[in-house]
Fold Oxidoreductase molybdopterin-binding domain-containing protein.
Amino acid sequence: MNNITRRDFLDKGAVSLLKLSLGLYLADAAFPWPAHAKEDQSIFDNFPIPEITSASEHYLQQIDLKPAVSARKWRLAITGEVKKPLELAYYDFNKIERFSILNTLKCIGDPVGGKQAGHARWEGVRLRTLLRMAKIRSTAKDIVFHAVDGYSDSIPAARALGGEVLLAINMNGKRITKGHGFPIRAIVPNIYGMKNVKWIDRIEVTSYDYQGYWQKQGWSETAEIKTFSTILKAGISGAKSPALIAGVAYAGSRGISAVQISVEDGPWENVILKPAMSKYSWNLWAYKLESRAGSDVTVKIRAVERNGDVQQKGGWLARAYPDGVDGYHTIRVTDDI
């Protein structure tokens, strides 16, 4: 169980939200406010948690060293069950219609309360566009992403043709860094990070069910992100002031209708919830905990989906293997005032 003192809140100042220029096609219209979200949203002004995660703060995960790829020499091949195999250079992507999406990524191996999650705006071209250019065959079953470092994973062809899977070249308005997959990475909404393959140099269309790197080791093939809620900040801004407990919650396109907190195993209370920026965006949330001088307080958090389903309880001993962890993030807040 994590120990976070109320003074941890002072570690970082306010974080400005990233604002990107308009003009790109967006597939992510903002969600309407949940019915209960009538609270004063001013608490999210100068909030200590950024709604958009910078490239430097966004989690990174790979099976080997980050490969160095030259934009000038790099090529993307599209092969397999297509009538017209393609080979594209990096700068060919400037000639194809751009698409932008806000998306939350999370590592399937992230434990309860872990920080291997991030929310960013990705820009590139629809995978569907390239598959149509290659004249994908009706026999297609899986779309396999092959990476420069030898990693591979796949998604069903039906999902790839749905229109929201992206081959991203930019992150938050800037060229994707080497760590995040330069020159091209996949962004597959609703799916854990392992299928959002980085450093792609070949896309193979197969007529069979392809088993990727992690599937061969028993991890989930569908890899749908489970609902999660995480406490990222627990702090106090001054003596005898209420402590701010804050974090993020996400349920994929299922959406979040409420985030709830329990203090000292008491009844569940709704926290203040900020509407999500898009259907694939996480929600920021906040709760003001009254000061209890001289005592420590245990708090736990859970999320409720828009259809009323409550996040799975799981437990601290729950394992991420094979399809992601369930559990309520629980911390002990130390009152040292």
Observations:
- The first helix runs from residue 127 to 133.
- The CA atoms of residues 296 and 334 lie 5 Å apart.
- The first strand starts at residue 2 and ends at 5.
